[in-house]
Amino acid sequence: MAVGNFANCLNVTLAYEGGWAEHPKDPGGATMKGVTLATFRRWKPGATKTDLRNISTETLQKIYRADYWEPVKGDTLARGVDLATFDYGVNSGPATARKQLLKVLGGTDAETVKRLCKARLSSYQSFKTWITFGKGWTVRVTAVEAKGVAWSLVADAPVDAPTPSPAEALKAEGIKAASTAKIQGNGGYASAGGAGGGVATPTHADNLDQLATWLLAGIVVGAIALAVYLLWRSHINKKRAEAYRAEAAIVESGAA
Question: What are the UniProt keywords, alphabetically (predicted)?
């Protein structure tokens, strides 16, 4: 179990939460290191934005532990799974993270981490703010996935010369993700090209009945939707490949 891993998980999360933010499209409003003004006022009634900007490290840790770590039962989760669940909870609420974890739980800890992060990112795509924050979310979730898998592999690795080693396993994940990204990218461009080439011109349509025209339109729309999906998945897997390569290097250096 990963008892005492709160500090490590919080450090990873804070690296993505950044400092002060007050984006007009962010429903959370004014935020400092991931803590919204509304949340801060539950701890410090009547607090101002200036107070939030100057939040102390002690208060920050108390908030994250009480509002996110404890609700997702972080101390009961395996190393790596705790990070993926905690970071998800910070973004989407601990109840959502915990519920999704229970849905994907199973197999090795590394497999659970991968399934949870995939489910998390898939749900984010449906958000209205995806266009604004999608790229940042993709970088964050894929990095958390790779870090969580790395922690899981290191924690579960046997002492007597594991084969493959955690670093080798991470490199293999990176290669697999890069290969998948290439296939999806090629498939996306092919689908888009096929859709564009299959659109009937008015001259052709003159000889088609209305039903056939509707069917053709449906095929074109479906091909375009497939192309968009494949290209999106290709982008995600490219980021996963980058993240896994980075984590493999960290593990090899002994810093994991």
Answer: Hydrolase, Membrane, Transmembrane, Transmembrane helix
